[in-house]
Fold this protein.
Amino acid sequence: MAPTVAAAQTTPQTPHTGPLGPVDPPTTTTSPPRDFTAPSVYFSDPDILAIDPSFNGLTQGNTTIARLFHGDVNGKPILWAEGPAWSAEGNYLLWSDIPNSRQLRWLDDDGHVSVFRQPTNNSNGNTFDFQGRQISAEHLTRRVVRYEHDGSITVIADSWNGKHLNSPNDMAVQPDGSIWFTDPPYGGQFYEGDGVQGAAPG
């Protein structure tokens, strides 16, 4: 009887629970490894995992993960894709390539990918507000900015309580117009900024 109990405890379907959550979290690697060049044959995508079962109802069962782009743009490889944001007005996907200090755009019309903005002050997170204006979190300048429709830039936040921000990262715009964002400390690293300006918060 003991071996059966031990086997049940180690199966991924019944993870152990500790004070910080599941000890044996589910894997995000499809077995066998996924071939993104092949057409999707899934009805319920096995790579969409909900750690909390209450989120299961939020996924669309017949929509599967598709790789939109892989490779380089203008001969320069993408070093770190981050901060994807969809523009409903422009019908395009925008994201940051942090170390290359550029933003790239994927057009829904033909799948074309091009450089959208460069330099970007090592932008990370991006989003769009309810007026269709792009908002970006810049690691190099340690600020959150908004790109106005006329091309000008408005600084939304660059300090709090008299101290510079660390490295604004992910953002969400609320219906009341407020912008919520995270401010982790790692933007001072050379790979995500210049490693000097953002090295010491304050």
The chain is about 5% helix and 30% strand. The chain has two domains: 1-67, 72-188. The radius of gyration is 21 Å. Residues 72-188 form a domain with the Neuraminidase fold (CATH 2.120.10.30).
